[in-house]
Amino acid sequence: VQLQASGGGLVQAGGSLRLSCAASGRTFSGDAMGWFRQAPGKEREFVAGISSDGGWTPYADSVKGRFTISRDNAKNTVYLQMNNLKPEDTAVYYCARKNVGSWYFPNAYNYWGQGTLVTVSS
User: Fold this and answer.
1) Strand 33-38 and strand 67-72: pairing?
2) What 3-state class would DSSP assign to 87?
């Protein structure tokens, strides 16, 4: 499976961005997906996840109430709507296909996109 993330950019604090992750190469509708981020000098951290049918959406505490994950299985795409962005949200954002294990750890995911950079200025 190939994952292509897009939608990153430079935004002022309080602004919004929507990230997209387009999947190809295999059936997407049966896959749980996740978004992670990695800031310079920090470990990759879980942001949000979504089950194959969209019915389960865990979030990191740091983004609850500000970020929303969604998916369109007809378009093989998962989205991350990010509102009220803060400078501490600055990172490279990655989408990934979940395999087995906890939602919150990168080793539970077996396919990764290339990442898209989000920069939030204060």
Assistant:
1) unpaired
2) helix
Give rounded-to-5 percent helix, strand, coil for the chain. 5, 50, 45
Contacts for 96-99: CB closer than 8 Å, 24+ residues apart: 96/3, 96/33, 96/34, 96/35, 96/36, 97/1, 97/3, 97/23, 97/31, 97/32, 97/33, 98/31, 98/32, 98/33, 98/34, 98/49
The structure tokens listed for 45 are 């951290």
SS3 call for 93: strand
Name, in order, each residue with C-beta under 8 angstroms of 92's C-beta and a sequence gap of 6 or more. 8, 37, 38, 39, 115, 116, 117, 118
CA-based nearest residue to 1, from 101, 96, 104, 107: 96
* pLDDT, tens digit (0-9, with 9 covering 90-100), for 1-58: 899 999 999 999 999 999 999 998 877 788 999 999 999 999 999 999 999 999 999 9
φ, ψ (nearest 5 deg) of residue 103: -55, -30
SS3 category, 121: strand
